[in-house]
Design goal:
CATH topology: Amino acid/polyamine transporter I
Number of helices: 15
Structural class: mainly alpha
Largest sheet: none
CATH class: Mainly Alpha
Number of domains: 1
Shape: globular
Distance between the termini: 12 Å
Number of strands: 0
CATH architecture: Up-down Bundle
Length: about 375
């Protein structure tokens, strides 16, 4: 879908912060919000190694997001189909296949996480949490990009506030253990770079998923700055969470839901419920972002044939079909196994079909364009 992205009425928030909030929304998902992904990819490297891996992943996200945003704007491509047609030509379908695998996996993880949260917090049947999440995602994506952007904005404020409070309560409850965990830890060693690169690789697809929100960018400078900011905005809550987890290193690496384990150590029941609500909100924005990208891809293809864009009803139906086909797979596999095995496969897949072409073909095309031509959208 090609649109005119030059919008002088765009706010500072829409130009510089919204893309980062949207990227964080896609990345945070079930494993990040519950701490399971952090336990899988960062805890094995220890406190300092885990932090080093997280900083490496942040750098990768920033560089790839900046290149992606700049290329998308130069191409005037604001859905993944248009973007990869511009980047890969006739081979663009390779990304779509990889993205379908990604959506199936992450929605399955989100369904498992929502079910586990409902069972742990409210003693619901696991299917109840999954169904509630699916209904909420459908309600948001039905109303298109504007509704999704508002969700990214307000849920982001909730997430940063809750994670900040989480660290404060952790320091008050077991701050001495956190300090001891870092003091006793050796310098980074082992596979910390592999953990950081793996985590960065399968999550960076979020930079393409959120292309619809880039229509607010007014220049290539906006695109680059927004991309560089997006990495730290996406990783900040994870760093706060990881620091708290180090109070119980290394045992916390074996917890299916590290968040629930830490909340029980804090013994603040009201905050326990608030944190679980926040995780549900994180699942909502991640799931909605992934489904909305498919809706925008379909709508772009429809509009290119001279037809009107998708109606809210059509968007809701597509979302319902996707969620029904993906989300409930998780109950048969399990959250830990999904994250441990499926995500590593995705990391290699996206390195091949997205990151490698972007860093070579995409960077070359950007360098070929003159500064003047890059300030206008074709």
């Amino acid at each position: 879908m090609k649109v005119d992205a030059t919008n002088g009425g765009s706010s500072w928030f829409q130009r510089f912060l919204l893309p980062g909030f949207a990227l964080k929304a896609v990345i945070i998902g079930g494993g990040y919000a519950t701490g399971r992904e952090l336990a899988e990819y960062f805890v094995p490297s220890g406190p300092w190694g885990g932090l080093a891996a997280m900083l490496l992943a942040t750098l990768v996200w920033s560089v790839v997001a900046a290149l992606t945003f700049a290329l998308a704007r130069s191409l005037g491509a604001y859905d993944y189909r248009s973007f990869f047609k511009g980047l890969l030509g006739s081979a663009w379908i390779a990304f779509e296949v990889a993205y379908i695998v990604f959506v199936v996996l992450i929605l399955a993880v989100f369904g498992a996480a929502a079910g586990a949260i409902g069972a742990a917090t409210f003693s619901w049947p696991e299917v109840a949490g999954s169904v509630l999440l699916a209904v909420a995602i459908i309600a948001v994506v039905a109303w298109g990009t504007g509704a999704v952007e508002q969700m990214f904005k307000y849920v982001s404020f909730l997430l940063y506030a809750v994670y900040g409070l989480f660290l404060i309560l952790a320091l008050a409850s077991f701050g001495g253990l956190i300090g001891q965990g870092f003091a006793d830890a050796p310098p980074p060693s082992g596979d910390w770079m592999a953990g950081g690169l793996t985590y960065a690789s399968y999550n960076i697809v979020g930079a393409v998923v959120i292309l619809p929100v880039l229509r607010h960018l007014t220049s290539q400078r906006d695109a680059v700055v927004a991309g560089l900011i997006a990495g730290p905005l996406s990783m900040l809550p994870a760093i706060l969470f990881f620091v708290a987890m180090m109070a119980f290193y290394p045992a916390i690496g074996a917890e299916t839901l590290p968040s629930d384990f830490l909340l029980r150590q804090m013994t603040v029941p009201g905050f326990h419920i608030l944190f679980q609500v926040m995780i549900f909100a994180a699942l909502l924005e991640s799931g909605a972002g992934a489904v909305h990208a498919i809706n925008e891809r379909i709508s772009g293809a429809v509009e290119s044939r001279g037809r009107p864009p998708l109606t809210p009803g059509a968007r809701a139906i597509i979302g319902a079909v996707i969620l029904t086909g993906c989300m409930f797979v998780a109950g048969k596999i399990g959250l830990v196994d999904l994250i441990a095995s499926g995500y590593r496969f995705l990391a290699w897949l996206f390195l091949i079909v997205f990151v490698a072409p972007l860093l070579t073909i995409g960077a070359w095309r950007l360098l070929r364009r003159s500064p003047a031509s890059m300030e206008t959208v074709s």
